[in-house]
Design goal:
Layout lengths: L9 E6 L6 E7 L12 E6 L5 E5 L8 E5 L5 E6 L2 H5 L6 E8 L5 E7 L10 E8 L4 E8 L11 E8 L2 E7 L10 E7 L15 E6 L1 H4 L10 E6 L4 E6 L13 E6 H5 L3
Antiparallel strand pairs: 1-2, 3-4, 4-5, 5-6, 7-8, 8-9, 9-10, 11-12, 12-13, 13-14, 15-16, 16-17
Pfam families: Phytase-like
Protein name: Phytase-like domain-containing protein
């Protein structure tokens, strides 16, 4: 998927059976009027009902939103952040999105914020739960690892549902030989909305350290490990953001990490 590095947003289809993988289709994303649009789309989820949810990052907190597009790429719904959450964010906001649909057809969207909201404890970021039928948000907490490297910070870059858990990518801002934290953790998938009051921090469990895979070709370890999915063949894939060659090598690394049962364990 193309983000703000490009003027127009596109959703790419990748043929991962080829080696190297190849983009075989690009779907233009359009606004409600059908005009091409430039969302800073950082996360995507393919809905079983058709179309996609996009996690759109804003240049400021209020610019963050969830966007639902149909199968033709046309925007059908825009969900803003609650005002109190948006007011406490800088430019690092939405990064990943996924969803669940129960047997009654009730859709719940899950989204992660990359950095802390100003009103929250240091080192705790938010995992959002949006109930589509009621139009309501609730929030859970996730405690980040620490870094002592000057200028570095930790953040979340992705979320996806794996059985009864949410899998997230946690990473540092370092690349090359300095890169240290490029990891997949899992937390429980909450069965209902968060209780009012302080954020309940969900205990996390390390599923996979991805750094060895990023270094396996003896090249430059990319900073932005930002995409994660379990494909229809049961394989786990992760992908980096090439950052539009701004302060980066311009490479996009697509990793096949193995069967889901091996990466996440059988549940």
């Amino acid at each position: 998927m193309a983000d703000a590095a490009y003027a127009k947003t596109q959703i790419f289809t990748i043929d991962a059976r080829r080696n190297p993988a190849v983009i075989i289709n690009a779907l233009p994303v359009r606004d409600e009027r059908g005009e091409p649009v430039g969302y800073d789309a950082e996360g995507i989820f393919a809905r079983p009902q058709g179309g996609f949810w996009l996690a759109v990052e804003g240049a400021t907190g209020p610019g963050n939103k969830l966007v639902r597009v149909d199968a033709a790429g046309v925007t059908r719904q825009v969900v803003p952040l609650p005002a109190d959450v948006a007011a406490g964010l800088g430019k690092q906001g939405f990064e990943g999105v996924t969803a669940t649909t129960d047997k009654r057809g009730r859709e719940i969207v899950w989204a992660v914020l990359q950095r802390e909201v100003a009103i929250d404890p240091a080192g705790v970021v938010r995992i959002g739960r949006y109930d589509v039928s009621t139009g309501t948000w609730s929030w859970f907490g996730y405690r980040l690892e620490r870094t002592s490297v000057p200028g570095d910070w930790m953040g979340l870059s992705e979320v996806t549902v794996v059985g009864d858990r949410l899998a997230v990518i946690e990473r540092d801002k370092l690349n090359g030989p300095a890169a240290a934290v490029k990891r997949i953790y899992t937390v429980e998938l909450p069965t209902g909305p968060a209780a009012p009051g302080p954020l309940r921090v969900l205990p996390k469990r390390l599923a996979l350290d991805v750094l060895p895979a990023l270094r396996a070709d003896n090249g430059w370890a990319q900073e932005k490990l930002e995409g994660l999915t379990v494909a229809g063949n049961g394989q786990v894939y992760a992908i980096t953001d090439n950052d539009g060659v701004q302060d980066a090598t311009g490479e996009t690394v697509l990793l096949r990490l193995g069967p889901s049962a091996k990466v996440f364990g059988r549940r």
